[in-house]
Structures are given as C-alpha cells and as structure tokens.
Records
---
Amino acid sequence: MMEGVPTVSRNAPMPATTEDASRVDAVRKWFHEAGRELPWRDGGTSPWGVLVSEIMLQQTPVVRVEPVWHAWMERWPTPAALAASTQADAIRAWGRLGYPRRAKRLWECAVALVERHDGEVPSTLEELRTLPGIGDYTAAAVVSFAFRGRATVLDTNVRRVIGRAWRGEALPAAHQTVAERALAASLVPQDDEGAADWAAASMELGALVCTARVARCDECPLASSCAWLAAGRPGLAEAPRRTQPWHGTDRQVRGRIMAVLRAASSPVNVTGHATLEDVEPGQLDRCLEGLVEDGLVTVVSADRGTYAL
DNA sequence: AACGCGGGGGC
DNA sequence: GCCCCAGCGTT
C-alpha cells in the first residue's frame, strides 16, 4: 500500500457527518410544521394511490394533479380496476395533464401489476424499476412514500436543495453526477421511517422554499448553514434556462389532436376537422404518424383518414 | 449525453 | 411572455 493513498474506494458510501445529520433534522422539523397536507400523503392512501400520484406528478405541478388524482382513484381504486378498462379511457381520464404517454404507461403498468404481481404494487426498487413508466426517481418515491422504506429519493427539488445548501450551487446541472448521487445517498437517515421522512421533507423544502428562481431564504431552516446563501446566492441569473418553444410546434399540434380525439366517442376525420384547419397538412400528417407510432392513436380507416384513441 | 414529449399557473 | 414543474424512454 502506497503512502498517502486513501485506502477507501472512491465509490464507497460516504457517511454523513454529525453536521449533516443536524441539517437533515432541521429540514424534517420544518416539514412537520410547514409541510402541506396532500391527499396522497394521507396515511390511508394505498401504494397504488401513491404510484398514481407519482406518475401524474412527473413534470406536472401539484395543483393541477390533485383533482385528476381524486377522480382517477374514485374510478380505478386498484390496479385490477384500471387494467380492466381500456387504454383509451385512461387517456381520456388523464385529461389535460400533459404527456399522455404517461397515461398509456400507467395503464400498461396496471396490466403488468395484474399479470406479474397479482394486482399488487411491489415494494422493492428492483421490481418497481421494471414497470412501465417507472424510472429511478419514481421507484425510490414509491418505496419511500408508499412503503416507508429507505431509498435515495432524488428529484429536481432535492437536487436543488442539496446543490445549494451543501454544494453552494444555484441550480442543478442537466444530468445527475456520481458525486451528487453519493452525497444524496449519504444524507439519507439510516432508519426506514427517518429516511422516508427526509425524502418528503427535502422535496417539500424545494417545492415551497428553496424554489428555482425566487428562493425564500428567510423562511429556510438551513439558512444559517447554507453554502449558497453564505456565498451571496451566486449564479442564479447566469444559469441556463430550459424554456422550450411552444406555439406552432409539433408538441402543440400533437396536444391539439389528442384533445380532439379525447372528446370524441367515435372515430374522427382528423385531417378534415374544423379545429385543426390552421395546421399545415404536412405537419398534421407528421404529428398523426408520430402519435400512431407512439401507440397513443389508432388508425381506424386510412382511406377516410379517420383516427381514434 | 441529448432529445422529444403537454400544458398551465406564477412571476 | 418567460420559466418551471415529484421524469421517462429512446437514440
């Protein structure tokens, strides 16, 4: 062994310091005082209810999800109930939440739960991760929020909180780094309940206080120890924006086509539809083709140009 | 690693 | 009008 070379692998889990632990505790304490009461946080919510909420919350704010989640759970209280319905009905019930492929995958997920898991939501990261629409974040969130298990829940909120308070960075990079993940993992309390509590608390802090562009540092339980605040909150104005064009894009046209098809109970002649008159025929065809390719839309009659969900 | 994918509310 | 939001799957 060479002198001065660390004997611990760089990939070994880094233990949290006692200061880390006290900061984690501060965020948890704040959460119990200031956290929102959201329906899917109700202790009586089933793992299925938590899973549905997590899929809906992927890139969609809480206020928009809430009413749709209630209606969804009323109609399909179990995976078996949704699996017995059609993909088209799932997409209709999804309404205007956006990214309708999530509705498709949620329906496929329900089918997979019935076929592979006896209609139950599995409780391990590995099993969850194989289900349609469930990636690293959502699998960890279900373990944590539905089963109160220990997982590293690292969403955009938690990344921002850790990035600022621990690393002194204004906004997280586009992609997670190994170091970032290791730091996040090191902060997770050892006990299951503590871990689940920290996951919810750190996300809530990012959602309510440590927000992207207008951080409310005066309300933050980490204000006295935050690396970013101590440095004078640098880099916020220079941080790259993620704004995407909208008006006239394929994205918008796809959404408009889906809105027409959701509202219809029988096949629609999309290319001759009054609502879509202003769309260039070439773009309309391209978007239609893409939606069919994505499995969101079916061709009823190519001759007559009719389509349905 | 980069890209495509909705929609709406806050600022 | 800009900007962000409890990401995922594919290339």
---
Amino acid sequence: MPNKAAPDASRRSETARRAILAAALDLVAEVGYAKLSIEGIAHAAGVGKQTIYRWWPSKGSLLFDAFLTLAGEGEATALPDTGDLAADMKMVLRATVDELNDPRFDQPMRALHTEIVHDPVLAADYVKRLDEPMRELKKQRLRAAQRVGQLIEDVDLDVAVDMLFGPVLNRWLQHTGPLTHDYVDHVVDTALRGLGPR
Amino acid sequence: MPNKAAPDASRRSETARRAILAAALDLVAEVGYAKLSIEGIAHAAGVGKQTIYRWWPSKGSLLFDAFLTLAGEGEATALPDTGDLAADMKMVLRATVDELNDPRFDQPMRALHTEIVHDPVLAADYVKRLDEPMRELKKQRLRAAQRVGQLIEDVDLDVAVDMLFGPVLNRWLQHTGPLTHDYVDHVVDTALRGLGPR
Amino acid sequence: MPNKAAPDASRRSETARRAILAAALDLVAEVGYAKLSIEGIAHAAGVGKQTIYRWWPSKGSLLFDAFLTLAGEGEATALPDTGDLAADMKMVLRATVDELNDPRFDQPMRALHTEIVHDPVLAADYVKRLDEPMRELKKQRLRAAQRVGQLIEDVDLDVAVDMLFGPVLNRWLQHTGPLTHDYVDHVVDTALRGLGPR
Amino acid sequence: MPNKAAPDASRRSETARRAILAAALDLVAEVGYAKLSIEGIAHAAGVGKQTIYRWWPSKGSLLFDAFLTLAGEGEATALPDTGDLAADMKMVLRATVDELNDPRFDQPMRALHTEIVHDPVLAADYVKRLDEPMRELKKQRLRAAQRVGQLIEDVDLDVAVDMLFGPVLNRWLQHTGPLTHDYVDHVVDTALRGLGPR
DNA sequence: AGATAAGCGAGACGGTACGTCTAGTCTTCTC
DNA sequence: GAGAAGACTAGACGTACCGTCTCGCTTATCT
C-alpha cells in the first residue's frame, strides 16, 4: 500500500515530457554534468520544477530517459554480419568510438555513467534496458561466428563481449588514451588471436 | 609575475593535511560521494574551509590525494612472478576484486573515478601518478612472460593490459555483474587463449 | 460583453459551499492563519480547488463568508436594555471578550482582520455587512439611553461606540494586555464618566 | 544550553543589516505586505537569503526592526505640554493620523500589525519596545494634567490612553471610516467630557 | 628579542540550487 | 454546466554548500 499517491500517468503532458528530455540533453552538452541543475532544465524546458520532480525520482533517472531518446531505445536489431567476424567487430567498435568522440553524445553519456557508478538502482535499470539488449545482439553475432568456426566453442560469451568492448569504454571514461580506430582494431585482433602463443 | 600569491608550502601544517585526507576518506565512505561536501570535510577534520581551498584546487584533487594515502603511492614494486603467467594474473586480479569489494575502498574509488570522468586535468594526473606506474608493473610482468614464451611476441602490451584489467574495472563501475574470483579466472583464461580457434 | 463567463449561481452546489466554509473554519482554528491554504481547504472539504476559485475572489472573502456562518449573519436584533446603560454595555462587552477568548472564534477573527487590514474592498464589505449593522444596534441602545437621560444629547454616537468597543478590540488584536471583565468594566465606567473633572 | 550555535554578532555586517532593513521598507511600501518575500528583500538588498535567516527568526521580526528604523526607536522623550490637555492631545493625535495617512508609514505599519496579530512572541516584543515606552509618555502627560486639575484623580491611566488612542488605531486598521483631524478632535473632546450627563 | 607575516580555525558573506509547498489556471471525466 | 480531481507553470519557502573574505590567534622566520 503506497503511502504517497502516485501521479496519474494518463494525464501526463507529453509536451512537457519531451521538452524536459530535450532540455536535459541540450543543457548537459552545453554546460556539462557538474553544472547541470534541475532548476536549469526546468527553466530551459519552460516547465515548472514540480513537473520534473513529479515524474522522475532522481536526476540520474531523468538523464537515463533523456539518453534513451538520444540512443533510440532498442533501435538496432542486429549487428552486421558480413561473414568476417573481425571486420564486423571492428566496424561496430569504430562506430562506437566515433559516437563517443561526438560531443553531442559524449557529455550525456558521461553524465549517465556518473550516475550509474553511484546509484545501483539506476544501474540495474541501465543494465536491463540498455546493456542487456545490446549485449544480446553482440552475443548473437558471436554465436553466428561460432557456427561458422570463427570463434571457439567453449568460451563464455559474456566474457568475450567484455573483452571486446570493455577496454574501449574504459579508455573513454578514464581518459587513459586516445580513442582511435587503430586502437579498436588492435583490441579486436588481440582479443580474437589471444595473448598466449600459437 | 604571479597575480595570486602561492601559499608557502614550507609552512604547511602536516597535522591539518593528514586530518583533511583522513576526514575525506571517512566521510566519503560514510555518506557517499553525492553527499560529500568540502564543508563537511572541514568540519570533520576540525579545520577551516580555507585550509582546504588553499591547498587543493578541486574536490577531485583532494579525493585523489586522499586515495593515494589509501592506496599507498607506488608501494608495490613488482607483480608476483611464479613462472606461471595465468596463475600470477589471476592472483593479482583476485586481489583487485577483493579490494573493489571492500567497502573501505569502494566508495573512495568510485568518487575518484567520477571526478576523473569529468575532469581531464585530474585524469591526466591520475594517469601519470597511478595508472602509468601500475601499468608499467603489469607490462614488466608481461614482458617477463614473453621471455619465457608464455606470451606472444608481437602484441601491444597496452592492449594486453587493457584486455586483462579493463573488463573487471568495467563490471565494477557499471554494476553489470558480480565481481567474483570465477569471473577474473575466466577473463584471464580467455584473454590468454584468445577468442579465435586454434 | 463580459470576457469571462460568470458562473451560473442557480447551479451552485449548496453542499460544496457549506463544506468549504466549514473546512475553512476548522482549518484556520487548527493550523492558524499563516498555514491556511486554499489547497488545504479544498482537500479538507473534499472539493476541487476550482470550486473555490469559481465562487470566491480571494481568500479573504472566503474567510469573511466563513466567519458569517460562525457569527450568524444579522442574528441579533437588539442589544439588551434593562434601563441601566452602564450595566448593559458591560454585559455586551463581557460577552464580546468571552467570544474573543474562545479559541473557536479567536483564530477565524484574527484571520479575517488580517485580510481586512490589507484589502480595502473586503474592508468595505466587512463594514457594510458586519460592522454597520452591529454599530446600528449599539447606536440604538445609546439613543435609548439618551431618551432616559443616561447619555448626553450632543455626542457623536459613532465616536461613542468607538470609545466603548475600540479599546477592547485593540487590546485583543495587539496583545497589549489581558482581556478581562474587569478591563471592560473600567472602559465602560471611564467612557461614561469622562476623563475630565466633574 | 543552546542546541543551535548562535551566530557571532560581533562579526555581523552593518552594511548588510542596513541594506536589508531599507530594502524591507522599500519593498513593503512598493508591493504591499501580501507580495513581500524574503527572497525579494534579499535580492533588493543585494544580500544572500541566509544573511536574513541568520539574523532574524521571522519575517515579522525583520519588519519590526525595519519599522524601528523608520520610527526612530525611543526618539521622543515627552509629549507636548502647553498646559491645555485637550489641545495637546489633539495635536498628538493629529500628528498620528497624518503619519497613518502617509503612504511611507502606512504599509510598513500594516505589515507589522498583521504579524503582531498572529505572533504573540513578536507582540510581546512590540509591547515592550514600542507600545510601553510610548504609553509611558502618554501617561506622563496625563499625570501632569491630573496635577493641574484637568484630569480626574481616580482614573486608570491605561484605560484613559486606550480610550484616546484606541479608536484612531482601530479606524485605521479596519478602514471603518476616514482618519481626519475632525475625528480625532471629536474623540478627544468626547473622552475628556465623558458620555454620561454632567 | 621584537617585528612581521604566514598558516590556521572559525564563520559571515553573496550566491546557486535543492526539494517542497502553494498559488491560480487548465483539462479531463463524471454526474 | 457544475463539480472532483489533479497536472500544469510559476515562484517563494527555508536549508545546504559553494568559494571568497575577514577576524583573531598561533607559529616561524627575519631582521
């Protein structure tokens, strides 16, 4: 039994919702995460603060929703499959770093990741609605590679995905090095060939 | 001609410095990054706010210094070398996840990483004073493995390090899965063997 | 041509009207004037806010109506006349202070007076619908006294009423002293006898 | 033992204090009591809100202080004494109504009285710092009148003061009639002569 | 040794933003 | 068409911190 009356979603203003999400993206890109304020978003969206507090429990969840409109929730249905696993993975990862290098995506993604680092609830949501679906697509491509003998059979596909995509995300988050196409090519080649001899 | 008089470091109070760093660690562990305030740290350390602002340019750099006292700057001089690369890497990574799972380390590290994500200057400092030295140790161990034929010759060692350590850091930051010894074992085995057949 | 359609009073819900007035009185007595809100009244009355805004132009006018239901508009038809002016005035004033000391009346009256102080329109309404009728009754009693030689002929009856009732109201409003029967007796005696010698 | 550290008054900024009081007076005169906000005062005074909240417990006490700067705390030392009580009281009361009719005084005084009506603590302060001293001056003048036989001996001087000044304040607060010199003359004459015959 | 000056604890200052509350308007649905 | 319900824009509330500043006090260095 909820002790606080939930707002009636059927009456929600779609106009306001969209204005808020757009304003959040614009503002985070403009002023950066540190200076992003609910008050600023409300003002930029031409909306009362309460309208934000009514529908989002935290700045993180708002950023998450905003990010989803940017990413297009569940837009991709499959990774490219030209028959050459290495080439396909390089293509995907190159597109990823291009996105990460795009200022329009960079700031919102950093903001979202910051929230995820500190908010396990939000992180769970992120895993379920963004990470899992994307991970599934990646695993599907890897399974297809297994079928044509381009990937060993007895590998943990989650670990495989982590090894292919983790290093790039880390380098971006931690500014430990430049995000280039060369780097991702190296990562794909190394991951596929393995570090050990033979 | 500097327009702002630099503080005279020779007169700096070591007592205050230590109290501030300790209070920062205690507080971030206690209340979390989001509720961590300079004012709170100053109060907990029994110190005036100005003493913090005088010596640290940002909350991030303070957290960095605090973290260094926790990690023990440049304490380790070499990674273990029993002759078995896989076993050694598993040992190191298991120790790493144990640390990441330790509440005393978890919050300060998350706080530091948050700052790094948004502050390239701090990130550069982090890379130079923490990431680079640790990375060098790891590369030394990998070079030793190359000498005894446990690691292929023509591999980019930076990429190798990223593939071994990146997935763990990632999983921790994004809460994408549990950080277990099993997981790191999988990662090491897979990285060494490679994803491709043969 | 009115630009705002006037509500059709014939369709007005008497139930809602009464619930609102009752809720206003209850709430002002319970939480005090400062924390009295239209929203709170609407909620307590089980009524939509619009129903209040439709029928009352201001919080003051609502309080005024509520107060009228408490006072019983134009209920008294004459002041007591035992033939002894002083005794009759003391009786009336004692009843007045008893009312002012009654918590049920105290808060609503203070609220109403606050609104009157700042709203000349409401004040005019108050004068016409509450002050004037009461004042007329008082003047009637004074005129009767004049007829039997208990009050001088050439006195401004409005001034006389002000001198008898004003001090009590003031003392109550300003908390300048306790409102006792003794005090009103003093006022009546002094007013009738005059301050000057003889 | 106070549970909340009291601010250190010795460090108080006199500039800020004066700016706040002046801004409060200006604003209440300009926009009226109903639209007077702490935020507005702070802004007009070029001051942070906290500086107001630090030094005044309520809007009422701020208005009180502001009013004191307007009235000049304890400025008058004695009422005029020409030997003619009636003439002197008329002079004083005429000055009073002139003040009440002055827009510069009207709004702040109404604001202050509103707060007093609802805040007994503030009312006590008002009585002590403004009402009592003024009342004492009035009573001194009345005592002087008693000495020269212009006022009866056995009268409660507080009641006498209430009868002379109460009606004017009342008429002003409640808008029950115009505040004219004629009116105060009537009041003084009637009070001194008394309502009863002879 | 006394003067000088810096760091220090303390905390007031002008501000920004927080998250909550209410005003008054508007919209939707029911009776 | 009035009414219950409640979302909407707007903005004040009182609180928490920001980063700067000023105040005495304590040290350390320099005449």
---
Amino acid sequence: MYREQRKEETETAGHGFMPGLAVDAVIFGFHDQQLKVLLMQYKKTGIFALPGGFIREKENLNDAAERVVSERTALKDIYLEQFYAFGDYDRYDPKPLKTIMTANGVIPEDDHWLLQRFISVSYYALVDFTKVVPMPDRIFDGCAWYDLANIPELMQDHSLIIRKALTALRADLDNKLVAFNLMPEEFTMSELQTLYETILGKNLLRPAFQRKLLSLGILERVAKKWTGGAHKAPYLYRFISENN
Amino acid sequence: MYREQRKEETETAGHGFMPGLAVDAVIFGFHDQQLKVLLMQYKKTGIFALPGGFIREKENLNDAAERVVSERTALKDIYLEQFYAFGDYDRYDPKPLKTIMTANGVIPEDDHWLLQRFISVSYYALVDFTKVVPMPDRIFDGCAWYDLANIPELMQDHSLIIRKALTALRADLDNKLVAFNLMPEEFTMSELQTLYETILGKNLLRPAFQRKLLSLGILERVAKKWTGGAHKAPYLYRFISENN
DNA sequence: TTATTATTGTAACATATTGTTACAATAATA
DNA sequence: TATTATTGTAACAATATGTTACAATAATAA
C-alpha cells in the first residue's frame, strides 16, 4: 500500500495512478531451511502489510508489480507470477489505513482516495534471499523477512493472499520448475530437497527426489562442496536454463 | 464491454461502476464434438467481442463475473474460474469503441470514460451448451456460439484472452476435474473422451481413458443408451459431486 | 433366424514411473 | 586406522500408464 508518492499524490485522487486498483506482492525467500515472506511494517502503528503499490497511468500491470518488488528488494529481473485478483467488496477495511494516516499526522476525510475500495491484483515473487536488501521507506519503518510458519497478524485480507500465493506456488512447483529462483546459483541436492519439502509441507524420499530431478535434465553438476562435516562431500548443482 | 447501462451511465464517469476495471468472460460450451465460445457482436459495426461488463461499486468481483455470464446465458450457478488480469497499457485500443459509439449515434469526446484504459480481470465459464439461451441486448446484435477452432477477428486483445483461457482450462482439466461442467447430466464415456480430446487437442487411448476415469470414483453408471447404431449400447454416466 | 458390422467394456500384457531398501563411497574426527 | 554421518546410486517393489486383444452386444442385412 501507499509509498514513494509525493504529498499531493496521497492527497488528491490517484494523481498519476489508476484508481481503485492495487498490486500486492508475496515475496518468497528461502533461508535457514525456512520459507520466508518479506513484510512491511507501518511507522508508529506497527501494523503489518504485504509490499504493494499502485499502477501508474501508462504503466503495464506486470511492470507495476515488478517495480513494487524491485523497490523493496533492490533486485531486478525478478521471477513473478500473477496468481489472483482479490476483489470482494468488504476486503477493503479503511480502519487500519485511517489509524496509520492519523498516527502520521494526516487527518483523512472519509472520501480520501486511499480509503476507497481497492481491487488487488496479486503476484508472488521468488527471489534469492542472499541477494535481497530489504528496503523500507518514508512510510514504512520495517521491511523484513518473516518465517512463513510464523507470520504476524496482517492488515485486511493479506493473510489470505499469502495462503493463496503458497497454493499457487505449490501448483507451479512441478509444472513450471520455479524452485530454482529461490536458490543461490549453486546448491546441493539436499538443499534443494529441503526447499521442496518446505514448500510442499511434506517429506520426500531422497533417492526418488534425486532421480527425478536429475532425469529432468535441467541440472548441471559443478563441483564438490566440502562442508567440513564428517561425511562424503555433496556435489554442487546449477540450474541450466534454455538460453545457456 | 458496455451494456445494460442507462444513458447517463455511458456518459458520466463510471456512475456506479468501478473505473478502469472490467470483467471479461470466456464462456465455453461443447456441442457437435466442438468446443464453442460465446461471442457478442456489436450492432451496425459487426465488431466481435467477449461478453464482459463492469464491477458495481459495492459488488464483489466474482459476483460481477457471475452476473455477466448470467446475463448472456440465462443460467445461474455457473462454474467460473478467474484465470488472469490483463493489464498492459496498450491493450486498450479506443478505436473500435469509437467506431461502435459513432455508429450508434453517440459522438464520444476523447476523455469519455469508455475510451480510457481498462484492466480486464478475466474468467472462463463452463456451461452446459444445451441449457444456454444466448441473450443479446440493446447494444449487441449478436450473442452466439462460435467454434473455438474458428473464432472471428476480435476486438482488442480478446483473442489472446481466449488463448489464455484455453491454457488455463487445460491445466485445470486433471487437477480440478472441471470437464463435467461442459457435459449434460448424463453422458457416455466416448462423449466424455471426445470432450477431453477436444480440450487437450490430442487423441487419447480409449482403454486407458476409461480405466483412469472410472478409477477416480467420481462417475456413477446410470443406464444404457440405445443409440440406434449397429453395435453394443454404451452406458450412461453421471458425475457424483461430494455433496450428493 | 442367423451372419455381419461397428462399437463397447474390460482383461491381459508391456512399459514407464515412482516408492523403498540397501550399500558402497567418501570427508572429517577420534 | 577405525568411526561417523551423509552422499550417490543400484536394485527391487509397487503403481500407474500405454497398448493389444477379444468377448459382448444392438442394429442391420442375408
């Protein structure tokens, strides 16, 4: 929700943005064997929300989503999937926004454009956790990773949006082979398996997993990784995209 | 695009609708071994378009989609899947709408609300062809079925929307078992197979198809159907939903 | 009545995929 | 040099899917 806009943009209807339309992003990362989601926290009020934004008047919808994610992660070339447009009339509760605005010294009128109904076109993004620099801004105190298993209470229907994002991610896991976007360039087979297990929420058998992924022909074995552990060193793998 | 609205609604910005937002529906039917799509044809100009509409100020997005499909098919309890929000800036070409408005005696100003940019949240609907009564209205001459294999040139990006709808339908075919919504209550196994083959665009082997579908435990064998053909009579089947 | 014909329902087998157990090959440490 | 934990993969089992084959009709023709 609202950020990066100059004062007159928060005050006047839209001002260069499409009215009634927002983009929200569920940005997934993977670290310490945990799926993480990047969340924003509003100044003073402490209310949590998904990173989001609005669509500029001449901006493609998908570009708006990419911009929103770029602004919060300092990344470019982001893997994004649009998964649902949330449009129930009562999804938009003006109370938290009123609280936030009041706490920040703006006394909003009831017909303020930010208090109107919004439809949110939602995307999930898959990013390399190690490359992200979480970026707060003037409006948000916080921009930080939270374990998916331990998400704080969120504004409006943002918890539902995260749940639906996870469902979409699970469905895309086999079809679109999206998991590699959550890994660093090189990774071991067991790291990859842990990621799959975390996303799917269930354990997988190691030999079957390894056989399956190698048979896809999309992994290149790079080198060995000496972990320092008292055991055989695992191979490192790299994802081979079609254009390489 | 625009329909059912009283004159002032076409003239003033939105008037009870959310601005900049539309809902479009790819309504699939199945008849004569062909997948069909319900298309609208504008009066006088002959321009083809998908059935669509706008979202009322206090209406749920999904309800708007259901209303749009109901208005064109005279059905209720429609199987709907939201599959994508189309939001490229240049998807909205004002020319065909200008042509249509001019042909219908409205001289539009350049900032007329209908000529502005729209984002289309698109749904596909699966309906029983035999139960549909195609409903034109004051704005549209035509509301009729067209073979998916033989769609006329459509307004704006509506051809792309149909292509994406078919992709989504194919993906949902196995996961969500949606095909039954395109069939009458009772059907033979070969009719069902033909539907699957038409949607997937490839032939399936009969014994494997029958074995697979029976093993799902979602079909109830009802009676035999004497086709009048010189061969064994096939069984009729009915889909068993969970709540029956 | 009795072949003939086209299609249906399903068994039977072949092949491919996935689930499971087992074990040799390490890399560090004791 | 033994011990330990983990890796890579072979080998077998169980399922699922692909394919061939054939008996069981329901109409028509002989």
